[in-house]
From TrEMBL:
This is WDR64 protein. The keyword Acetylation does not apply. WD repeats lie at residues 82-118. Residues 27-114 form the IP5PC-F beta-propeller domain. The lineage of its organism: Eukaryota, Metazoa, Chordata, Craniata, Vertebrata.
Length: 173
């Protein structure tokens, strides 16, 4: 088992069940995610979703890391980032059978999104039925202006590294 914690610094920490820090991650998408406020995984612990104070959702693929966390080659891949709300995300849920993500915000709205692409399906309370099979319509909620961004595989994660820089005066510089 792996425990995940989300932090105000946008950092995600993965812990062993014994309490040892296994991995520390920062998002690298072009949109600043801000302080993380919500976390959830699918039932097989292959996908990790994070929600932020600024309303962003980030999808991480953690399958290979969970299978063998000791192997350094097994990386965690940030796959998708999208703005789901104009305000803080307070809860997330992945519905795997329908491939849907439900997001809730402090603005009182609950919205549905396609889990793999971040396409917007609608909000709870709308007059029309949800059409979950049509992901070709590029619509957004009225308060969100950014489309989802698929993260390229070549992108490198920013991992926090402990570096000590002693303060010294260098007169030549």
């Amino acid at each position: 088992p792996i425990l995940a914690s989300a932090h105000e610094s946008s950092c995600i920490r993965l812990w062993s069940i014994q309490g040892n820090l296994m991995k520390e991650l920062l998002p690298f998408s072009e949109h600043p995610s801000g302080p993380l406020t919500a976390l959830c995984t699918d039932s097989f612990t292959k996908i990790l979703l994070t929600g932020s104070k600024e309303g962003y959702i980030i999808r991480w693929n953690i399958a290979s890391f969970v299978e063998d966390s000791r192997n350094r080659k097994n990386k965690i891949q940030e796959e998708l980032c999208w703005r789901a709300h104009a305000t803080e995300v307070v809860d997330l849920l992945i519905e795997e059978e329908k491939n849907v993500v439900a997001t809730a915000s402090i603005d009182g709205s609950v919205r549905l999104w396609h889990a793999r692409t971040g396409y917007y399906f609608g909000y709870f309370g709308q007059s029309r039925k949800f059409e979950l099979s049509d992901t070709s319509r590029l619509i957004l909620p009225s308060d969100v202006k950014d489309f989802s961004a698929i993260i390229k595989e070549e992108s490198q994660h920013m991992e926090k590294k402990k570096v000590i820089y002693p303060l010294r005066l260098d007169r030549d510089k």
